[in-house]
Design a protein that fits this description.
Strand content: 15-25%
Helix content: 25-40%
Radius of gyration: 24 Å
Distance between the termini: 18 Å
Bound molecules: NADP nicotinamide-adenine-dinucleotide phosphate
Structural class: alpha/beta
Low-confidence stretches: 539-545, 550-560
């Protein structure tokens, strides 16, 4: 059977895939979206553990592409819960009639480029084969759950969960529960489990910094103000390093006396959320500045946690503040004051093995009815590398990235024509408001595809030299910061054997966005478009292998 044909295959139907479909379809392209899950949502579909909530304010963690959508959707709290974000994405899918081009329950297993036809052949675990001119990987940065290979892992007979692949509603009443991991997911799930379980054991390897979310219902008056000024709010975010409308810090700790220094941090603590990260300038560059904020954060933990020994074990001391994702919590530290919660410090009592009924450490044996892995993800590269991606001359992406991911602008990879990454390694992505980063990438990709078609090219790909220069530049910027002082997932440190490369671009969303715009304006500097003579004759002739008729064809019509 000959494969289905379309202009673009988009992999994933989360924030990235949905918006890619919207933009690309509007260009008249035929698009097929392939989604492994049974519904839209991507990361926000699977991370449905109790307490899952966004750590970016809901009015900002939302699409900006449609002013009507902005005005009609009503967020109910400062930080949206996972169910609310999923409802939002379902609404977006309905409102823009996106579902008709999405195939659910379909995992992409292969994407192979053909040098002769300039087409991608995409295969799935459902036996589908689709042939497309372009392929957009909207596969998410945090979509492959990471379960550590602990000794005896398979012998445990209790219930096992991972926060990133949560099965649906789960009850822990009357149970002894273990949670391994104290990152953003662990810090959110732990208070929820503690409220239900008979006893909760928190297995902590590294304590993290967490600021209070100070979540609250959104005041209708504030919502009105935000909606009235949305355009300006979004513009402010576009010109900020984190794609967030936050004020830029202007003072260093030494610019003010001790009382004012403390007051700056106290005010930020009271506001909660991301405020602590914008207290002082150069917070992630200057160690002395960072030490001031880190010590303030530790003092807050010591105030909140009644048992001094437990408080001390919860104090992060091995990495600068903000060099790992700063968590936002609701009652996390207070949870350790509950009589039914025990902190197990894996630095002083490492896990020896899992066994049939629980976990043995070097000091004790913990009997557990349920075990929750809040152990994170094979971030940024894991999902892409699980797909067998073959570029020009049969080059495998997994081999190209053997020593760590290499991209040009986090958007394309040399040797992989017409394959686009959404918020790929080498772009600001996870260091920013992801929705804004996704929108910026999708707009860039849509414009690029449109340019390729309009000018009569068949392919676009990154020049290897441009890619090398970009990777060098991204590494140089990262090395000037304190980010590289932490064993974080940003650097692949959480996955055994993963190359230690700082993956996101740390130079700021505003700067990065301008670079992307300059590249477009320059006629795609650093990219090769072929055939080389296409531009001149493009306007007189139809594009080779050109667009399928758009319409409601589900991408199944034969190519022209
Ligand atoms: P994570 O930040 O990678 O945290 C994983 C945790 O598991 C860490 O505490 C880690 O300890 C621990 N761990 C891993 N392997 C272990 C082992 N073998 N033994 C003991 N402990 C082990 O993962 P995450 O919490 O899922 O968060 C990942 C990212 O997702 C976040 O940084 C954030 O970007 C995003 N996220 C966002 C939200 C939100 O918006 N509120 C919520 C959840 C997640 P070590 O530190 O020692 O490695």
């Amino acid at each position: 059977m000959s494969p289905r044909q379309c202009d673009v295959v988009v992999v994933g139907a989360g924030f990235g895939g949905l918006y890619a479909l919207y933009e690309l379809r509007a260009l008249g392209l035929s698009v097929v979206v392939l989604e492994a899950g049974p519904d839209v949502g991507g990361t926000w579909f699977w991370n449905r553990y109790p307490g899952a909530r966004c750590d970016v304010e809901s009015v900002d963690y939302s699409y900006s592409f449609s002013p009507e959508l902005e005005q009609e959707w009503r967020w109910t709290s400062r930080y949206a819960t996972q169910p609310e974000i999923l409802s939002y994405l379902r609404h977006v899918a309905e409102r823009f009639d996106l579902r008709r081009n999405i195939q659910f329950d379909t995992r992409v297993t292969e994407a192979h480029f053909d040098d002769g036809t300039f087409r991608w052949t995409v295969r799935t675990d459902t036996g589908d084969t689709i042939s497309s001119r372009f392929c957009v990987m909207a596969t998410g940065c945090l979509s492959t759950a990471q379960v550590p290979d602990l000794p005896g892992k398979d012998s445990y007979r209790g219930n096992v969960y991972h926060t990133g692949t949560w099965p649906g509603p789960v009850g822990f009443e009357g149970q002894a529960v273990g949670v391994i991991g104290t990152g953003s997911s662990g810090i959110q799930v732990i208070p929820q489990v503690a409220a239900q379980a008979e006893h909760l054991y928190v297995f902590q390897r590294t304590p993290n910094f967490s600021t209070p979310a100070n979540d609250q219902p959104l005041d209708p008056e504030i919502v009105r103000e935000v909606k009235a000024g949305y355009a300006a709010r979004r513009a402010l975010a576009q010109d900020s390093p984190g794609a967030l409308p936050l004020p830029r810090p202007t003072i260093a700790p030494d610019d003010v006396d001790a009382d004012e220094r403390y007051a700056v941090m106290e005010r930020a603590w009271e506001v909660g959320g991301n405020s602590m990260q914008v207290t002082f300038k150069n917070l992630l560059i200057d160690q002395a500045t960072n030490d001031v904020v880190a010590e303030f954060m530790r003092s807050k933990i010591r105030q909140k946690v009644k048992d001094p020994a437990t408080a001390e074990r919860l104090c992060p001391k091995d990495h600068p503040f903000g060099s790992k994702r700063v968590c936002k919590d609701t009652d996390y530290y207070e949870t350790f004051n509950r009589p039914n919660v025990t902190l197990v410090d894996l630095r002083s009592e490492p896990i020896v093995a899992l066994h049939q009924s629980g976990i043995a450490t070097t000091k004790a044996d913990y009997q557990l009815n349920s075990l929750v892995f809040a152990t994170g993800f094979d971030a940024m590269t894991g999902t892409l590398l699980k797909i067998d991606i073959l570029g020009r001359d049969g080059t495998r992406l997994v081999d190209e990235w053997d020593g760590g991911p290499q991209t040009y602008l986090g958007l394309m990879v040399a040797g992989f024509p017409n394959l686009f990454l959404v918020t790929g390694p080498g772009s600001p992505s996870v260091l920013t408001n992801m929705v804004a980063a996704i929108e910026q990438h999708i707009r860039w990709i849509a414009r690029c595809i449109d340019d390729v078609d309009t000018r009569g090219y068949a392919t676009i790909e990154a020049r290897r030299e441009a890619q090398v220069n970009w990777v060098t530049e991204a590494n140089k910027v990262a090395e000037q910061t304190l980010y590289t002082k932490a064993n974080s997932w940003y650097i692949g440190a959480n996955v055994v054997g993963k190359p230690k490369v700082f993956m996101p671009y740390v130079g700021g969303f505003d700067r990065y966005r301008r670079i992307c715009e300059e590249v477009t304006a320059s006629g795609y500097r650093g990219f090769i478009r072929s055939p080389a003579d296409a531009d001149a004759s493009a306007l007189a002739h139809a594009a080779p292998g050109g667009r399928l008729p758009a319409g409601d064809d589900h991408g199944q019509r034969p190519n022209r």
